[in-house]
Amino acid sequence: MSKQPQPISPMKNFFAGGFGGICLVFVGHPLDTIKVRLQTQPKPKPGESLLYAGTFDCLKKTLAKEGMKGLYKGMAAPIIGVTPMFAVCFFGFGMGKKMQQKTPNDILTYPQLFAAGMLSGVFTTAIMAPGERIKCLLQIQASTGEVKYAGPMDCVKQLYREFGIRGVYKGTALTLMRDVPASGMYFTSYEWLKNALTPAGKSHNELSIPSVLFAGGMAGICNWAVAIPTDVLKSRFQTAPEGKYPNGFRDVLRELIREEGIGSLYKGFNAVMLRAFPANAACFLGFEFAMKFMHWLSPDV
What we know:
The protein is mostly helical. The chain has helices spanning 10-40, 55-66, 68-71, 76-100, 110-144, 152-163, 165-168, 172-197, 209-239, 249-260, 269-297. Helix 1 (10-40) crosses helix 2. The protein is globular and about 65 Å long. It starts with 9 loop residues before the first helix and ends with a helix.
């Protein structure tokens, strides 16, 4: 069961979630770039080898060709999108918890926390889908050498001019399929670990920084263990030329399994997991710090 140390405030969750999201992007974006490049690299022709042999090969080649700046390509889009997106994500989780409480002191079960987490995944899709589309396009253009977009805003303008609003929101269904179950796992695993790591008779507010970092990092790993197959399909679909997959993710799935086998659904696994722990540890530490600050600032809200 989850112990609620004070009444749930969705609005505090909103602001603290935004701060946590900024912390996540700064720590996690370099390995996100590696992940997307591994997931979207073209299939080699007969006799040729893969562009990137793996996570560390991709990291080495990116640094050699583009320097540290190459690892932060496309970061403006998630920074602009991630603050409201994580704010909405944590707001959705707080709202989902509050909706299931009959009284402010009700302790939620883990299935109830999972349902609240899934609601947060629905809330974030409207922001996440276009942000992910732009980020992926900017990340792969550097690795292909063909510079089509000058930056995030130029990318949005070109997509809208060529394909309308549907072009900007391409991959929304896959983003929803990825984030709804993954968000449920994300928040449930974090709450479970917080409960497990809190000493008997103590409050979650007294949890040490290393414990918060561990719980947040492991929650990120649990999230991506669920999300990565759909994320591979989403990255491939969002960066494909228009019209390549007329039947959406089903065509992507068929092509990947036919050409590269079931293991292709776990492309970029090492990069994802290397990023998941530190990025989400930073996110939840930022979230908890902001929540403590707001509880101190306005304890009754």
